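User: Second chain of the day. Same drill as before.
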Amino acid sequence: MQYDIAAIIQGYAQGYFLMADDSDRLGWYGSRDRTLIPLDERFRYPKSLQRVLNQERFTVAINRDFQTVVAGCSNRETTWISPELEEIYWLLYQKGYAYSFETWQGDELAGGILGIVIGGAFIGESMFYRITEGSKVAMVKLVERLRQRKFVLFDAQMMNPHLERFGAYRIGDEEHQALLKQALQRRCLLV
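Assistant: Same format as last time:
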């Protein structure tokens, strides 16, 4: 199947995101409130995670094993990442839009975050772990990277208890659109 990558990026740039329903049909979704991961002092994490970070058990990589991260993100009981969406992520990766931000323990993939970069926006699609704390360390290191690279926005799309522990917060659509517009004016590189 052929996909119009420019149209897909345009959809994300307008604040929509792709998800598959229970029958694997892909559709565009929006939300009246969005969840953001703060890139300022509001970002936080459990003290126990600081100990893990101090131990330096994990190393960080970007796109070392993109397809395995996508597979890890979709490998759950209920998932919005259909085989078709996996294919779209692969095409976005090949065009330089989709990234996997990974943690490794030696030669073993510990966890990762799948996201799409447009301008100064990192749009988090999903995350997973194979080794305890793998995705949490990825989150901390990704926020550090986004700060260094002057990103405006880390859009996590929807709230969950895991994200709340990092200081994630909700904003309305109007505020989200304004931040997204500001982010799209930037040219930030993850790598």
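Helices lie at 5-13, 47-55, 66-74, 83-94, 134-148, 161-164, 173-184.

User: Great, on to the next one.
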